[in-house]
């Protein structure tokens, strides 16, 4: 099967929001190098190029351009990616390490050593005002992390993935190399710098170094979202911060993740929203409701769906059979059909149907394209509604990391943005690529593959997920 980020008929399952953030300040201090000290952040800050980690803006350190290459302060960069860092002042040599992978570079030298092999850097590391600055993209690539430009900021992604070994679980990088040993009963993807792990049936959180930040103690634990995570202990649900401190304990029948500064809650059969103080921001009044995205959230009123803003004001009337979260400035909607299911189109933030509801099936935008059902098979349209990719496949997925799944003769593979086959159809089930790897099934065996289709690690089985996202009842 192909897994879409949104379905043509929205499910009541609400996936946990994953927006990685730099780990807590206490954890940051653990790897700061005395030789660099505060000057590391101060020196880079003068350059003024912002840095994000998984889309979240960072404070205290920035990037600078030197002859067209983006440089970052070594110590803060290492912390963001979960790397250890050793600095030899006498030789001006820095050694980054993660798992069995080691990078050694020297100030003012454009070559470095990865384990025992020499490699070229995009620019020579430099010492400025007592701080070591390193070429971001070159260092990140060595450890399987990614560095891209996004909205005039340098966007970083550590890209660690759960894997299984000997009945236990841990984390690998995008090369399939062990970064955090498989010592846990269950693990989950990283979110905001922390990942859920399970030991002996209890859940807690670790950081990218594998350090236990919040000890396993909860019956249930969910991903961090906007700085808070929902947990359950002794039959009660409440929200904690990244230190494990209880922040709010709202009294509702069911609680969900935060999005857009508000958390979805259920009281009886109705849904509403609370703010970060636990105060009721939008009273429970909706028959169904979803997370906020692009400033709006889908809600159900008298059997029909529309959208509200963060004040609870209806900004797009509830006239649709179904709606999905906004993505790329557009929301997927299903119009009313004369006999059952209606067709699909897309609305903008004003409620204007900018792409007519002409499709029997359609899915939300991802990486600027949306999958839609055409006469000859599935294809993709852009935000103007123009058909840009056509295929003959009866099932396709969303684009992630530049690849989308497709089905052919009962097997699944991946196509690129031109519609060409990038990984031939050979798997029994696939999930979307995420931060460099995708989970696939070969028979009943779960595996992780890279963008070339190469198996790099054994993936945890579906039943081994650390904790499912909360779901509306």
Automatic annotation (TrEMBL):
Keywords: Signal
InterPro entries registered for this protein in UniProt: Cu_amine_oxidase-like_N, Mao_N_sf, WG_beta_rep
Residues covered by the Copper amine oxidase-like N-terminal domain: 65-152
One Pfam family per UniProt: Cu_amine_oxidN1
The keyword Signal is annotated on this UniProt entry: yes
Organism whose genome encodes this protein: Cohnella suwonensis
Gene3D superfamilies: Copper amine oxidase-like, N-terminal domain
SUPFAM superfamilies cross-referenced by the UniProt entry: Cell wall binding repeat, Copper amine oxidase, domain N
Matching PANTHER family: DUF3298 DOMAIN-CONTAINING PROTEIN, GLR2918 PROTEIN
Signal peptide segment: 1-29
Protein name in the entry: WG repeat-containing protein
């Amino acid at each position: 099967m192909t897994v879409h980020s949104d379905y043509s008929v929205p499910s009541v399952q609400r996936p946990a929001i994953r927006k990685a953030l730099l780990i807590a300040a206490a954890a940051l201090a653990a790897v700061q190098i005395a030789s660099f000290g505060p000057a590391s952040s101060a020196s880079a800050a003068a350059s003024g190029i912002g840095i994000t980690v998984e889309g979240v803006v960072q404070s205290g350190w920035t990037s600078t351009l030197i002859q067209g290459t983006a440089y970052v302060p070594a110590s803060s960069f290492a912390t963001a990616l979960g790397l250890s860092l050793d600095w030899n002042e006498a030789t001006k040599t820095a050694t980054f390490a993660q798992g069995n992978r080691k990078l050694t570079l020297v100030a003012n030298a454009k070559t470095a050593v990865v384990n025992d092999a020499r490699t070229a850097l995009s620019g020579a590391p430099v010492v400025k005002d007592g701080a070591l600055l390193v070429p971001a993209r070159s260092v990140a690539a060595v450890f399987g992390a990614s560095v891209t430009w996004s909205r005039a900021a340098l966007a970083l992604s550590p890209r660690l993935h759960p894997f299984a070994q000997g009945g236990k679980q841990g984390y690998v990088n995008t090369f399939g190399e062990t970064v955090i040993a498989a010592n846990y009963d269950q693990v989950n993807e990283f979110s905001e710098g922390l990942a859920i792990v399970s030991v002996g049936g209890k859940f807690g959180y670790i950081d990218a170094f594998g350090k236990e930040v919040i000890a396993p103690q909860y019956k249930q634990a969910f991903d961090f979202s906007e700085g808070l995570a929902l947990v359950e202990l002794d039959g009660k649900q409440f929200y904690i911060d990244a230190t494990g401190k209880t922040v709010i304990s709202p009294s509702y029948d069911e609680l969900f993740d935060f999005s857009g500064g508000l958390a979805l809650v259920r009281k009886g059969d109705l849904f509403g929203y609370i703010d970060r103080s636990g105060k009721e921001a939008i009273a429970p009044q909706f028959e169904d409701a979803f997370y906020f995205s692009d400033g709006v959230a889908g809600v159900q009123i008298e059997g029909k769906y529309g959208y509200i803003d963060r004040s609870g004001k209806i900004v797009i009337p509830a006239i649709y059979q179904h709606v999905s979260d906004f993505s790329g400035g557009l929301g997927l909607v299903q119009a009313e059909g004369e006999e059952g299911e209606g067709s699909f189109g897309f609305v903008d933030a004003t409620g204007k149907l900018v792409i007519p509801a002409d499709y029997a099936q359609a899915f939300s935008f991802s990486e600027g394209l949306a999958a839609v059902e055409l006469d000859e098979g599935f294809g993709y349209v852009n935000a103007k509604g123009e058909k840009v990719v056509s295929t003959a496949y009866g099932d396709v997925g969303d684009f992630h990391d530049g690849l989308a799944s497709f089905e052919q003769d009962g097997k699944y593979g991946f196509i690129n943005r031109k519609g060409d086959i990038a990984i031939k159809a050979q798997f029994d089930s696939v999930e979307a690529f995420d931060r460099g790897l995708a989970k696939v099934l070969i028979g009943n065996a779960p595996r992780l593959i890279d963008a070339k289709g190469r198996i790099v690690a054994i993936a945890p089985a579906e039943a081994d997920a650390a904790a499912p996202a909360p779901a509306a009842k």
